[in-house]
Write a structure and sequence with these properties.
single chain; 165 residues; mainly alpha
Length: 165
């Protein structure tokens, strides 16, 4: 499609953050095994849309010849340079998330949102922080999806529910 990697990365993170917010509202209302059913149902819905929208995704053939990124003019076409690039990028993302969880304000709220006793913690706004934690996780998944897709091919066969085990 000709879209540069450095443009796709923040767009994917922001788009997945917004989608995470939109999906987080109904997900906060269901609990236990109903949440698992809703998650699997959404997974099947996305899989079918991606497989059947041939103009957008290429259908069952997928999008091929996706160019790998270049960093300061250095091409990351080989498997090993791309691995090191992805590894360093994931470590940087992990450091940012670690900093976010350890920061005084946001970290306390996000830690409370991810525990069972957190919503009852004094001063926490449980729905908002739980939704924020859900959206941050979705943004990280979007970044991971960009790295997966830039590995060389995008296809419905590459990422299906059977691959998520």
């Amino acid at each position: 499609m000709g879209v540069p990697f450095w443009l796709v990365l923040p767009v994917a993170a922001v788009a997945c953050f917004v989608i995470g917010l939109a999906l987080g509202f109904p997900a906060l209302r269901v609990q236990h095994h109903y949440l698992a059913f809703a998650t699997l149902g959404f997974n099947v819905l996305v899989f079918l849309v991606m497989r059947n929208e041939e103009q957008l995704t290429g259908g069952t053939f997928g999008i091929s010849n996706i160019p790998r990124p270049s960093l300061f003019g250095y091409s990351l076409d080989g498997a090993l340079p791309f691995f090191y690039f992805a590894f360093v990028s994931v470590m940087l993302l992990a450091a940012v998330l670690w900093w976010l969880l350890r920061s005084p304000g946001a970290g306390r709220s996000l830690r409370c949102a991810t525990t069972r006793s957190g919503p009852r913690a004094p001063g926490s706004t449980s729905r908002r922080t739980t939704l924020l934690a859900f959206a941050i996780g979705a943004a990280c998944a979007g970044i991971g999806g960009v790295y997966l897709r830039r590995s060389s091919i995008s296809s419905s066969r590459v990422s299906s529910i059977s691959r998520s085990r």
